[in-house]
TrEMBL record:
Gene3D superfamilies: Homeodomain-like. Residues 234-330 form the HTH araC/xylS-type domain. It comes from Pseudomonas deceptionensis. Keywords: DNA-binding, Transcription, Transcription regulation. One of its GO terms (molecular function) is transcription cis-regulatory region binding. The keyword Cytoplasm does not apply. This is AraC-type DNA-binding protein. Coiled coil: none annotated. GO terms for cellular component: cytosol. InterPro entries: AraC-type_N, Homeodomain-like_sf, HTH_AraC.
């Protein structure tokens, strides 16, 4: 499956800031992502999920438990207009239900839901479909950040009655206690944390009906623009994915999109990528599928992806993944 979801730079910026104090240059964390340091200064920059995951993979390689720390740093203010809309909601329940309406603005990789059972409510994060090697990291980041959002909105700690994780307990599982000081279950059927249902009716200290209405409307418009970009990018990726064996080039792709090369280049820049970055992203995803699911020799995979020489494919794959195709397959 070729993922084309757009997301914000929230997680990437957090990764860079977290490692900044350790003196690690941003270039090391951005390696292979196609994201430039200059992109981080644009509030409206959008990147693909694969670009975000490349940066996160670089971070996890340095520190496996980094998802917990990043989650604790991802406050509600990280979400721009949506964050302000949540803060000015009347109650915690109103804020969470608003957040669930705009998963694209949250930048989540999960299907979020509030499940009420008796006097308890579970904030669930399921349906993860990205890189399985980063599943634990992304689950930690998601659940911890959701709890931080709840506490930012309330202005006080949210007492939990339990937390569930679909993965097995990692060797650093004791660190979970800092964010989830409650009974914790691993190898569970879902990912969630639970609290008393009465907290949903808790008034928020920064509630303001006028400001909330204005921010909610801006979120609606931002979401429309965001999903419009998403639809456009999906069309681009579908066209290009069907032609990896003979990529049409920027000019050829622009003609297929019925626009000028300049317009196509500008639109790609607006979503935080370029023609070459998009082509590399698609080639990398297809290469991983072929290496995992077929017995094709490396030279045949190279030809299928449009490389004139096997050596060129090997060089590109090392740049994308850090290992040679044969090592990845092994």
């Amino acid at each position: 499956m070729l993922h084309s979801h757009l997301t914000t730079l929230n997680a990437v910026s957090l990764v860079l800031n977290t490692f900044k104090d350790e003196g690690l240059p941003s270039e090391a964390l951005l390696a292979g992502s196609g994201i430039r340091a200059a992109d981080l200064s644009r509030a409206d920059t959008r990147i693909t999920t694969n670009q975000e995951m490349r940066v996160c993979a670089n971070a996890v390689a340095l520190r496996r438990e980094i998802g917990l720390e990043l989650g604790r740093r991802m406050h509600v203010s990280s979400y721009g207009m949506l964050g302000y809309a949540l803060l000015t909601s009347a109650t915690l329940g109103d804020a969470l239900r608003l957040a669930l309406r705009y998963p694209a603005l949250l930048g989540t990789l999960f299907e979020l839901s509030l499940e009420i059972e008796g006097e308890q409510v579970s904030f669930c994060a399921n349906g993860y479909g990205e890189n399985p090697q980063l599943a634990v990291f992304n689950t930690e980041l998601c659940l911890v950040s959701l709890k931080v959002i709840c506490e930012d909105l309330l202005g006080q700690p949210l007492p939990l009655v339990g937390a569930r994780f679909g993965h097995s307990a990692p060797d650093y599982h004791a660190s979970y206690g800092q964010s989830f000081p409650c009974p914790r279950t691993f190898d569970a059927d879902d990912n969630a944390f639970a609290f008393a249902k009465s907290w949903l009716d808790q008034p928020l200290p920064l509630a303001d009906a006028v400001t909330h209405q204005a921010m909610a409307e801006r979120c609606r418009k931002q979401n429309l623009e965001f999903t419009g970009r998403q639809t456009w990018l999906e069309r681009i990726r579908k066209l290009l994915a069907a032609q990896l064996h003979a990529a049409p080039g920027l000019e050829g792709l622009a003609e297929q999109m019925n626009c000028s090369p300049r317009t196509l280049r500008r639109h790609l820049h607006d979503v935080g990528c370029s023609y070459q970055t998009l082509l590399d992203d698609l080639r990398f995803e297809r290469a991983k599928l072929l290496l995992n699911e077929t017995e094709w020799p490396i030279y045949r995979i190279a030809e299928t992806l449009g490389f004139s020489e096997t050596a060129s494919f090997r060089h590109a794959f090392v740049r994308w993944s850090g290992v040679a195709p044969s090592q990845f397959r092994a």
